Amino acid sequence: MGTQNGGNGGVVINTSSLGGLTSSWCFYFPIYAATKHGVVGFTRCVAKEPLIKENNVRVSAVCPPAVLSNMLATFPKQTCYEKEILASMKEDRLRKLRPIDVAKIVMDLIEDGQYNGCACIINRKMAPKVIPEAKL
After folding, report:
1. What digits encode the pLDDT tens for the residues 92-102?
2. Which class would CATH give 3-130?
3. Torsion, CA 69, CA 79, CA 14, CA 115, rounded to 10
4. Which of these is catalytic: 28, 32, 81, 115?
5. Is 115 part of the annotated catalytic residue set?
6. Which of 22, 81, 90, 112 is 20 to 30 Å from 4 at the Cα level?
């Protein structure tokens, strides 16, 4: 992948979650939220790593809302907050995506060279929304 070994560079897309950017709907499962926040932080740090940049590798993260999957089908039942979780998933802003929707957006991120070191909220109805890193 890297240009040091004769490659052209590449793209790494990590999968986080909307829960990796906010705790407003994710407070029912703090371990999940913490790991998804970690993916976002890891992505942003790796994208700035000099060897990654020198080798023309871009690194970004997608942060979808709920995705229709086996995890989504079984997870709420495994918690004491099943009613609250299911109610929150009915909100329009948390519209559930199909795996193919996520895959299409990932392909767009790979093909569009502007995305690097960013966490993107994804949704079927809009282009990826880049959430900027906090400035200190």
Report:
1. 555 678 889 88
2. alpha beta
3. 90
4. 32
5. no
6. 112
